[in-house]
Amino acid sequence: MYCLSQDSFVFKLPKKSPLVLRMVVLSFVMVCAVYICSICLKQIGVVPSAGFLNVEVFERPCPEPNIEPWDIPYVHYPKPKTYSREECSCNPVRYFAILSMQRSGSGWFETLLNNHTNISSNGEIFSVKDRRANVSTIFETLDKVYNLDWLTSASKNECTSAVGLKWMLNQGLMKHHEEIVEYFKTRGVSAIFLFRRNLLRRMISVLANSYDRDAKLLNGTHKSHTHSPKEAEILARYKPVINTTLLIGDLKKVQEMTTNALSYFNTTRHIFLYYEDVVKNRTRLDDVQEFLKVPKLNLKSRQVKIHHGPLSQHVQNWNEVQTTLKGTDYENFLLEDYRK
């Protein structure tokens, strides 16, 4: 009988070359590396195509602002074509339009807004007729303003928080009010109404400004607004003659236009201001800053008021004007309405 030792069941494998083992390990590592890289490329949007890498950059969405749901349509994140907002790309921007009439204090009011670090109001853009030729040109202009691509001296840095313009009622605003109201509501534009309570004082300012446009009392230069007491004094020397035959009719037309504007734009988000109230009570500027959701600052303007004191000092035929307005709905315009 034969007995098998334990060594009889041991099979010895032939020794492999160290080079072969290294090649196996290296191949395994390379396969793993290729797989991991392919996963990473898919995640960052890099897709190989025809030997080239087509890199798609995915922008991180801006965080949701902490605001009320009703306020969301009025918060925007414009992407200008003319420059990059860079680190301010997620700073929300609000759109506004100052709706007013000539010689109603809108120029002074706009300088106050532009004194704010985060507000850019770009002036009376639609005074140029081509920009208000039709609804299409109006919308093209507005789009450029609200996309932060309208570059003027009023333009702030990339971190603008509120951007807008000054728009007179007779510059296409009333003519195309239905389309413009729809634009405001669709694009989330807020309206700031600014009118004068005393329409007689406004009329005197209109007549005086019209005269200076031709007379150019300031060293041959026409200025609608002044920045020194001396300039204001020179312009205030002119006293217009008011056509009393047309006076009541003219006042009525202006009153009707402002009433219609308020009616047309009543469905938009808006705030209403009287110029006289802003002059007397600067807390109304706090209301505007709150309306635009910007930090409250002490706003200042370099403009100097031209016509001060009682209107009797600024009209040649004051007695006729008094006689015409006494006993009418406009008699209160004869009174001094503020002291500045």
UniProtKB/TrEMBL annotation:
Keywords: Membrane, Transmembrane, Transmembrane helix. The chain crosses the membrane at residues 20-41. It comes from the Eukaryota. InterPro entries: Nod_factor_sulfotransferase, P-loop_NTPase. This is Sulfotransferase. It comes from Brassica napus (Rape).
